[in-house]
Design brief:
about 650 residues; mainly alpha; globular
Amino acid sequence: MQQGIKAFNEGNYSLATELLEADLRENPYSRPSYIFLAAAYLHREFPILAENTAENGYEIFGNEAGFLWLKAEALLQQKKPEKAAEIYSNLDKHYNTLSFTESLDIDRNKIQQRWIEAELAVSGIAYNRGNLEKALESVNVVLRLAPEHEAALKNRLFLYSEFEEWEKVVELADDALKILGNDKQLIGIKASAHYHLDELDRLLDEYEKLYRKNPDDIDTAITYAEILYANQKGGDAEDVFITLLEKYPDNKRVYREFAKLQERRLYINAKISVLEAMIEQFPGDKEAYRDLTETLESQEEWEKAREYYRKWMELADEKKQIHQSIARTYINEKKMKHAEAYLYELMNDFPDEPGIKKDLAAVLQELEKWEESIEILEALEDAWLLSLSGVRLGNAYFETDDTEAAKNVLEQLLELGLEEPEAYLILSKIYQDTDDDQSLVKAEKAILNSIDFISGRQADIEERMDHQGLAGVSQTDADDIEYYNEITENTLKFLSAAFERDDVENSLQKLLEVHEEASPLRYSLAEFYAEDNQFKASKKILTELLSDFPSHFDSHYLLGRVHEQMGDFPEAAISYERALGLEPDSEQVYRGIIRSYMEMGKVDELADRFKRRYEVNTNNDVLKEHLIEVLHRANRFEEAGEIADQ
């Protein structure tokens, strides 16, 4: 035990884990071993093992509240802040009657700080799910604990803005300004509230006077521009920055704030121009290169991004990371052959860099060079990095029909607490031939874990956007969410193809009990019922789903199909029209609209509607094609010919 604790205190958490696990096998009632083992798992980011160990320890040693602390920390790592917040709340409430192992260094302030972090995360998740009341409730908890908490004060304002309680927003903004001082973001929120209350002149006039009085004052000018933007006068705000740059061409802050303004206006190309001008003025500014390359990548301007990465490299002392970023632009651009060649060169230049090998293995798998990817992954000396790439290694074994090796690698990953959905999906396919029950369980876990990840990431994105705007979102966020959505969809397809319909329905129902808000699951169950001719059940699910997610294209389209099958063609047309509003060039939606109007005997009416739309947007070739078709069906051949000749 002592050796394990010593290893823990020295930061050797891997050795500490090994020694403390051995001690508990010999002495299952060693409280210090339980404490330090759970803490070591946390440091190694094995949150499920940490949670289980802490929970077992608390069951044995109920008087040791440190186990509850460790369990809460493990829940936070698992993106389960609501459960963690409950534990921190109880620890705070009963603090004076609890005992903590001294080595954990836990005091009431530390508990409250973590409780605050958990409640902020709960608020973000609730906001992302549209539960604004719950989001506000958690923010208010934070403000009871820390009345001057900057993020909570601002989040409360954002939420009251969502409720459109503008007078309350003004009141709370004034209170927050007394605490936080002349904060530009708060002033902007207050200005927006005045705008909605038709009191635009109250704040805007105040800052316009300040600006006119002190046009050379950078702080006043930037704040004035922020207020203009908040009141939907982005063009005027841009003029303020242009004037500032004419006066202060050597001021980096003006460039940075101007770039942020263009980003908030969603004028990304304008932001790029500002950053390019900044680099021309300050060719050694590495932060400008970082912002510019990230922005170019967000616009998928890969070649231009590489151009600036290479310029940035001329300034950088550490070039390896920039090389890797260049390689990833090829990957994101789907130029896998280029990426492969570039990464092989990098591997020769940096033979000890495991991250390059990891990226190369991923590219090789995209090129279906499974044997080469196995060779690269097996050569990784960094065991922790190999564990992160273990899914790829398991997948490569699976693709080369070495299912036993794939199974061993993937099961080991899961035992380490790495709950990777793709590992569960591959294992589900492996078990399909030998154990239907295990296969089904693994498929369900793949879906649940994917949805957990997506929910957690989306909540995190919302929180970052609240504080940083679009700058808080990276291409990695989008790529990760797309990846886990694909895992969910692929697993659902596998379930439908591999199992009996009753088993699939039971699985979907069971998964919905855990994640009733998950749109992919709800949609899949609706689709399942539609295919089984249970149209009323499908319609009910889709109606509820669209109430929560009104922009879900697939649900609008499927609901149109369901209405068609039920013979309700007016409702089918409405659903298809809503789907068309989300994807205006969808061929399948146009087909549905035309079928519905034909069944209603209203082809002439549809022709007139399409014609009015086309007169507004004559560049829409998809609309033109279907307008001509509908005119033909309405026997209006002369009009169809005129449209065709345009």
